[in-house]
Specification:
Helix content: 25-40%
Low-confidence stretches: 1-14
CATH topology: TIM Barrel
Distance between the termini: 52 Å
Mean pLDDT: 94
Radius of gyration: 19 Å
Strand order of the largest sheet: 1-2-3-6-7-8-9-10
CATH architecture: Alpha-Beta Barrel
Order of helices and strands: HEHHEHEHEEHEHHEHEHEHHEHH
Largest sheet: 8 strands, parallel, barrel
CATH class: Alpha Beta
Structural class: alpha/beta
Shape: globular
Strand content: 15-25%
Number of strands: 10
Length: 331
């Protein structure tokens, strides 16, 4: 059946993806950013980025398979989020295939599988079906995530992100128990720096009940950091900053996920409203400026920063990255 969006490509083999030409001003902007700052987007498979990242319109299948090398040629993109492993753990070979497609200085921000970070086993519609016995399991975190990522990506690993899904009320009433188990998991992880000198372990949460002194102590004790998760399920960035201050000095990992105008459950609404992700729709100037301040303070102190932006943050993550880079330099 012919796809009306791509009528000339249905029966053709997947072709190499080429990058869009970039203006000298954009390259100059990238050249002014500190080397220890890595900006990027949450994945790279969006056809609507034609003219922004790609030289023309490609199918999502083409971009998923062949788009990463072109993505990595964008002057501002020195990292990328890989979320697909959340749904099914990736293998060492899959990670190695990603590493082979990018320059030596590129780094990946990898999201842990739901096998480890979701307390529920979910059905096709996302509804919880039963308790997950591997939730925050040390063995699963190592064998299904940390070791394959380390072995496959090597020194191109930037951040291992454990994004813990929202908990049900019974679990929220037992936060000391959850934090103790998280502490055990983090303590069991293999050392990163011998194989990945720039790598960091980060924990992102979707329930503010995690943000306690015991949580901070668990991160500090294991050398992990807090992933600044900019999502409507969490308090604004200014209310999350005390956790980072308590862990200072240290690296910054941030994932700017969802504009608060859509509410805690507005991911699908944002996707539908912003698609095809080729323009900024809801610029979040308050978050952008606050994040620029945090980034500038971090990198100016010599610490690493990994920051990825979603299309659902403002409408188009490539354009959001440009605006954020300009705000950082203005800071």
């Amino acid at each position: 059946m012919q796809n009306s969006l791509f009528p000339d490509q249905d029966d053709q083999p997947l072709a190499s993806v080429r990058p869009a030409p970039q203006a000298p001003t954009l390259r100059a902007l990238a050249g002014q950013l500190p080397a220890n700052l890595r900006l990027g987007t949450s994945s790279w498979h969006y056809p609507g980025w034609a003219g922004l990242v790609w030289d023309k319109l490609y199918t999502e299948a083409q971009l998923s398979r062949d788009g990463l090398p072109a993505y990595a040629q964008h002057p501002l993109f020195r990292t990328v989020g890989v979320d697909r492993g959340f749904y099914r753990p990736l293998t060492t070979e899959q990670y190695a295939a990603y590493a082979a497609q990018v320059p030596d200085d590129f780094r990946f921000v990898i999201k842990a599988p739901s096998l480890v970070t979701d307390a529920q086993i979910r059905g096709p519609g996302g509804q919880g079906r039963e308790d997950n016995p591997a939730f925050l399991s040390e063995d699963a975190a190592i064998t299904q995530f940390a070791e394959p990522a380390l072995a496959g990506l090597g020194h191109k690993l930037g951040a291992l992100v454990f994004q813990i899904s929202p908990l049900l009320m019974p679990a929220l009433k037992q936060m000391p128990r959850q934090i103790t188990q998280l502490h055990r998991l983090l303590r069991a992880l293999p050392a990163l720096h011998e194989r990945a000198p720039d790598a960091v372990v980060a924990v992102e949460v979707r329930d503010p009940q995690w943000l306690t002194p015991d949580f901070v102590a668990a991160l500090r004790d294991t050398g992990a950091t807090y992933c600044l998760g900019l999502h409507a399920k969490m308090p604004p960035i200014t209310e999350q900053l005390p956790v980072l201050r308590a862990l200072w000095p240290g690296p910054l990992v941030c994932r700017w996920n969802l504009n608060p105008v859509h509410g805690a459950f507005g991911y699908e609404d944002a996707r539908d409203q912003y698609s095809p992700f080729d323009k900024l729709v809801d610029e979040d100037l308050v978050t952008r400026q606050a994040l620029a301040n945090v980034i500038a303070g971090t990198v100016n102190a010599g610490q690493r920063a990994y920051v990825t932006l979603s299309n659902k943050a403002e409408g188009s993550s490539p354009l959001s990255v440009i605006k954020l880079a300009e705000a950082i330099l203005a800071r």
